[in-house]
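ok so heres the complex, two chains, lmk if somethin looks off
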Amino acid sequence: MSQEEVDILKRALARERASRKAAEEILEAKSAELFELNQKLEASHKELETLYSKTNSQLQGVFETIADAYVVADVNGDIIKMNEATLPLLGIQTINDSCNLMELVKPSEYDRVYKAFNKLYREGGNISDLRVNITTIDKRDIFVQINASVIYDKERPIATQGIVRDITLENKYQQALVAEKQKYSNIIANMNLGLVEVNNDDEILMVNHSFEKISGYTESELIGKKGGVVFQVDQENDIIKTENEKRQQGESNSYELKVKNKAGEIRYWLISGGPNYDLKGNVIGSIGIHLDITELKSLEFQKEKLLQRLEKSNDELQEYAHIVSHDLKSPLRSIDALVSWLKDDNKDKLDDTSLQNIDLIQTTLVKMEQLISDVLNYSSVSSDNSEIQSVDIQLLVEDLLKMLYIPEHIEVKCMRQLPVLCGDKTKLQQVFQNLIGNAVKFNDKDKGLIEIDVEDQKDYYKFSIKDNGIGIEPQFHEKIFKIFHSLNKSKDSTGIGLSLVKKIVNLHEGKIWLESAPNIGTTFFFTLKK
Amino acid sequence: MKTLNILLIEDDMIEVMKLSRATTSLQLNHNIIEANNGEEALALLEQKDQLPDIILLDLNMPKINGIEFLKILKADDRLKYIPTIILTTSNNQRDLLECYKIGIAGYVLKPLKYEDYVSKIEKLLGYWSVNELITA
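and the predicted structre for the whole thing:
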């Protein structure tokens, strides 16, 4: 080998060495770089891992503590994973149990649910507010709301995760609410009462069908109008406005109102209303219920008028009776005066017969005056100015017996203590006076006996006045109570006594009747309310 | 016994005769002035220097009736002091109350019998003739 060749080889070797060294150096640098990079990578991986585990545990936490049921199910609907809240909802025993969600869906709902999830898998995105009727494992029928989304593995959908919420109750409430609302709307629509809703400015917001009928206006004619302007007759007297103002202060009220309807007729409404509140409790207007009481009102007016007229004619009758009795009595007085003067002035000139006749005239005058007084008494009995007080009948009868003329041969006995009752003392006295008086007057026996008795009958006292006098024939038992039906024309009987007694007894809500046998005696019975 | 000046306000002629005959037969020496109705009586009372000692007043009269007359009388500052006795047939409770409310010195019912009337008049006038009266 030549030197030249050797040199060449040497040089080549040297070059080779140099380049290898350079390559080695580069490699070394690269390797260092790589190591550094690796180091960095490792650090970031660790960081990521921590982050992941942190996030994961966070998620796990959320997943476990979430109040709603959280379920992950595969494409067939088999549960892969679920949280504690799922167990009671679906009736599953433990977290490790599984079941197929699609099997829980009610058969009637199956199609709808299947389609919804099918679409979700095909198109992605999520399902929200899917409401489904299901039957739980423990056989409860519940209504649930589902919100779900798809889980992908390398762009391939492998499962769905979702939150299931039991809305059975909520649904029931809602249904109940709807039903109630419907019920009330039906009532409002069909009731016979007119209903009007107004705002705080008295502008009509709503009326029901009945109100349209009552008022004659249609709803569209009324909306936005003021009730006070449309209906009120008397514009000066702003009842509607003042009453609505009261309602705005939260006051419920009812009042009567004179209005005119669309046809211009005057009607009377009874309005009962209350404030209307919004959800926050602010008064936003009022609701009024209207009842047409025109018929009732006109009856009331009629009644009032009749009563007034009756009162007036009663008064007039009273007045009339007094005037007539006065006017009738005055001439009697004059006749009596004139006759007594005739008698006095001509004592010596008149014979006995004439003097007797003059006496007869005067007796007749007395009887005539008595008759007039009795008529007046009779007409006054029904008057209202009687004074109701507690009356001791025993005392009343005792006083009466002192006052009445009772002949020696007649004995009047009270069989027992007479009660105290409520009534008009003067009138009750008239009753006893007439009955005892009659018993005395019509007694033809040598030894007359009059017995006054009483019997307690729950709400009434039954009094009896028994005599052993002339008696009354059965055919007259009714007749004697009629005015001017005196059976015996005697000088001190006007035929008004018993009719007066009957009237007074009736006024005290009692009855009067009699039992009698001719020549043996008569018993008058009458009841007086306690 | 004092001699009374009596104003009798009465529209019935026979009633007037009754009073004068009664006073005569009782031998009373009173002066009776007659007025047949309220207007006439008011005209008489215009003469303030000859006012009566007492007034006997009937209630039922035409035109101004007794109660109306009484009201006019009691509204007058001077005349209201004259004792006024109602002499009437009306025992109407309403009239009685009304009269006492306005102010009267008595309320006497005219009885049917003339002899009873004489007896009542005797007592009435006897009572007033022993009374001290306001003199004009």
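quick notes: The longest strand of chain A covers residues 141-153. thats all i got rn
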